[in-house]
Amino acid sequence: QAVVTQEPSLTVSPGGTVTLTCGSSTGAVTSGHYPYWFQQKPGQAPRTLIHDTSNKHSWTPARFSGSLLGGKAALSLSGAQPEDEAEYYCLLFYSGTGVFGGGTKLTVL
Amino acid sequence: EVQLVESGGGLVQPGGSLRLSCAASGFIVSSDFMYWVRQAPGRGLEWVSMTHSISGTFYADSVRGRFTISTDNSKNTLYLQMNSLTAEDTALYYCANRGYWGQGTLVTVSS
Q: How far is it, in rounded angstroms, from Cα B59 to Cα B61?
């Protein structure tokens, strides 16, 4: 089974910009991995932010965007807000089977 | 309004079985990608299984051969039949489609 890697932790200043990445042990991440990004706050269910690399849901704040960057999936946050402090998970699909990354704990400080 | 409500969790002995349900409203389960995802206490998310009417069913290596995902179109409900449970299956189990998540149901495997 593939291993999906994320930065364990990142810190961003309020109003700042940060990029979270999602890599695959099998090689470059492509649109064919259908990258997803989720946000989870303590005690809450996850919330889907991005599906299929860059598609947002109606509830996804405009400051979040998804892309492919340097062979990885990326989640960019521009203009960080205190409420963006959370755990972020990416999910990649390998011929129908999904694998989550270990999560990135994002601190807004 | 889309809603997903899981049920069926509880305490089960090692080697036992449990069936989780996920009642959906606001969309048709059989027409969407439906997932089960679990989260052990204090741990990250683990993808468990997916079903789609055209793409088929898929399982994580850790549950393949023990868990079965299915849907009941008449009840618009997703299921996860879990057999041969071990302590490593203890987790909060979420159902989700491509956008929405339920609140989860807790499965505890312990003697």
A: 6
Specify which residues B4 forms β-bridges with.
Answer: B24
DSSP character at residue B101: B
> Radius of gyration of chain B from Cα atoms?
13
Write down the pLDDT at residue B63.
98
CA atoms within 13 A of residue A86's CA, in its CB half-sphere? 21
How far apart are the CA of A71 and the nearest CA of chain B, in angstroms? 22
Pick out chain B residues at pLDDT < 70. none
Q: Is A91 on the interface with B (CB under 8 A)?
A: yes
**What confidence category does residue A29 fall into, taking pLDDT thresholds of 50, 70 and 90?**
very high
A17 vs chain B: nearest CA distance in angstroms?
A: 24
For residue A39, the chain B residue with the least C-alpha distance is B45
SS (H, E, C) B39-92: ECCCCCEEEEEEEECCCEEEECCCCCCCEEEEEECCCCEEEEEECCCCHHHCEE
- Quote the mean pLDDT of chain A: 97
Query: Do A100 and B45 lie within an 8 Å CB cutoff?
Result: yes
- Best probe of the B interface among A87, A97, A105, by most B CBs < 10 A, is A97
Q: Does A73 touch chain B (CB under 8 A)?
A: no
Q: What is the pLDDT of residue B9?
A: 97
- Checking if the pLDDT of A1 tops 90, the result is no
How far is B56 from chain A, CA to nearest CA, in Å? 9
